[in-house]
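User: As part of a screening pipeline, I want to sanity-check one entry by hand. Below is the sequence and the SMILES for nicotinamide-adenine-dinucleotide. Please return the complex as structure tokens so I can compare it with the automated output.
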Amino acid sequence: MNILVTGGAGYIGTHTCIALLEAGYSVIVADNLSNSKRESLEKIKTITNKEVLFYEIDVTNTQAVEEIFQQNSIDGVIHFAGLKSVGESVEKPFMYYQNNLVCTLVLINACLKYDVRRFVFSSSATVYGGNHVPFVETMNFSQTSNPYGETKAMCERILTDITNANPSFTVTLLRYFNPVGAHNSGLIGEAPNGIPNNLMPYVTQVAKGKQEYLNIFGNDYPTIDGTGVRDYIHVMDLAEGHVAALNTVTAGVHIYNLGTGQGTSVLQLIKIFEEVNGIVIRFKITDRRQGDIASCFADVSKARKELDWIAKRDLETMCKDAWRFEQNYNHQVM
Ligand SMILES: NC(=O)c1ccc[n+]([C@@H]2O[C@H](COP(=O)([O-])OP(=O)(O)OC[C@H]3O[C@@H](n4cnc5c(N)ncnc54)[C@H](O)[C@@H]3O)[C@@H](O)[C@H]2O)c1
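Assistant: Here is the complex for your manual check:
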């Protein structure tokens, strides 16, 4: 089966390409490389010994997307392509709505036109906004706290309405919690441009000496030690969740949390990182960051029951794999 993976050169996309190839799927990647590098696709080949077909296109471009559907027999789409920085979305909301909504509209339209009935969408736990933890798929949410989150919530609604009007269509909305770690080869991982937004790449960059110290945004939250609690999931577990979603879904809209179901505070994560890698992470406590919530973790019982999927890799593995990639990354010509 041929799966079109948009944003397949990015962090979660590359790991999912590996999981798909290992599960026997053929993979076509569409990416404009706005936040990724062509070399990461070569690393996929090194790891799997299999080729991916690559289209360097912008997914907002209807004609370029339709050409992929004309030139290939596509059985399903996994749609990762999108902009993902919360802070940037507050500064540049038009760019976020334009890119993230138009990509989704163009793709779903091509799926309808070329009768491709399987669609998997990268959503986010951010859609749950200020609900109480653990977050359950049935929870209502009215407004999320930033334009990035709004694009995810809007895309979910758009895809739901389109599926309701096309009942033979299968849409799976995967709400990711906090993906971290890297493939255990150390060849691919999270390599953000500039200063990292997410905790783990920041921690690994402090460990490497690229950043002087880690800023911890607030230690007065109502959590175990006052720092924010998140549900960290190994990126390969997340990738395998996509394969499970492709394998098992039936017609209609399906929503699944992809997390571990366990909350870990920032200080707890740093301690594990220090212990497994034998490195001290310097940090400073600063003010809370606008838009952050105290705790975010998933109820994962639905994915376990319906997808027969569960996150298997522990926090120690996430920290080791992230650090292995960071050490390797410096030596790569990227
Ligand atoms: N990483 C996270 O913490 C997280 C959490 C929840 C949801 N998500 C979502 O998962 C998806 C993948 O995230 P990621 O962490 O791999 O991000 P990433 O930036 O590494 O990957 C996204 C990829 O999409 C590409 N892209 C962006 N706009 C495009 C366009 N118009 N046309 C073609 N390609 C385009 C980028 O070049 C990049 O390769 C995103 O939709 C993101 O919002 C990520």
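Points to compare against the pipeline: The CA atoms of residues 89 and 95 lie 8 Å apart. The mean pLDDT is 95.
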